[in-house]
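Retro notes
What went well: the complex prediction finally ran end to end.
Inputs used:
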Amino acid sequence: MLKKRVIPILQLNDDELVKSIKYKNHKYVGDPINVVRIFNEIQVDEIILLDVFQSKKSLDLNYEIIKDIADECRMPFTYGGGIKNLDQVEKLFSLGVEKISINTSALENHEFIKTLSKVFGSQSIVVSVDIKKDFFGKRKLYNWKKNKMLSEDIQDQIRKYVEFGAGEILINDVSNEGSLSGFDFSMLELIEKKINVPIIVNGGINSYEQINKILQNDNVDAVGVGAFFIYYGPHRAVLISYIQEEERKIIK
Amino acid sequence: MINIIKSGVGNIGSIVRVLEDLDYEYKIVNKPQDFSNTKKIILPGVGSYDSFINSLIQNKLLEEIKYLVLKEKYSILGICVGMQSFFLNSEEGSSIGFGFIDDKCKKFKNNTKKVPHIGWNKVNIKKKSNLFNDIKNNYFYFAHSYAVFETDKEFTTSTTNYIEDFASAISQNNIYGVQFHPEKSFDQGKQIIKNFIEKC
């Protein structure tokens, strides 16, 4: 039986781990290497690391710190942030990254997904989709680099990504991200049954019950968790944690 | 020194780290002259089938590995696409593999479940193999869309179920392959690599 995955999502800025609320107010949470060591000890299913401001910078990727993190990871490691070309991806894989996640460059250039999946195989390509509520509470695709809501249909967009060779789709609820206010289960209605690649959902999770409940949904394969595994208590004290084996009720 | 093949898009970082953890000496091989005379080769695979095989051909490694394995009796461990390359060919591409084993790789029929098969899944041992000595936890990490579905043949060491049963580990003489990623599967994965180096 394939286990459904619970994946800590970490945000990087320069060589520090940070955590945002709704993609704003990024606060320092710690040293990435230390945090990865803790996740090694706990034996988490996977890790996703997103270099959050990289897509807004013109600089090349932060390979030195990515390599240090990959060196430390004893579990599968997905990197995302600022990926624009094949050379970068080749370099990332050579450093020990298992999967790469693209977001802005997928929005801007569908052909890039095709090329990536042709060269590296779709099993290593995650396409990340940001979704945000507009002024009227309607969910829209969101371009974080341009801080802009997009008019394209969300489900159409996801279908296109899969058709072009995305191996996994990571769906982020930006309106809820980092808020610890609870996952909005209506997000799951966006996921069509016919999407036949693994789906990871992320945003606002604040309890083990929620994790289990999300994973009971047949269309969801994995859940991404940020703040809930990073903070403890009402004052957001940094304390790295994970779901205990006995609290995991779900095996696919 | 254990020979680790670095060809094209290969992810060798994770394998190197496991060998360092286990205190083995290794050599990174990207051309035929690089091979050490330690008769162990690890062939990690990342990338699509064609890009993987083509980079082996371009670096003149395909023929050299074939020679070392078949004539010089080097033991080889293929990982993921590395294992798939031991067969004749794959539905993923048009290249010809090593052909050590007379079978082929096919795509999962994804009418019921999602493809790629990504995550932690159970490995069921079918045939005694030193590769699986002292393995206590038999969940390993997989990430693939293609597999070898022959599960009742002599070469099948273990099977795993996803949509249908497939060969998750194979062995034939000095040739070993795993469809999962031991280098990303915590202690149980490390043990597989240790077993290959010490007992295969």
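What we learned: Residues 2-199 of chain B form a domain with the Rossmann fold fold (CATH 3.40.50.880).
What to try next: split runs per interface for comparison.
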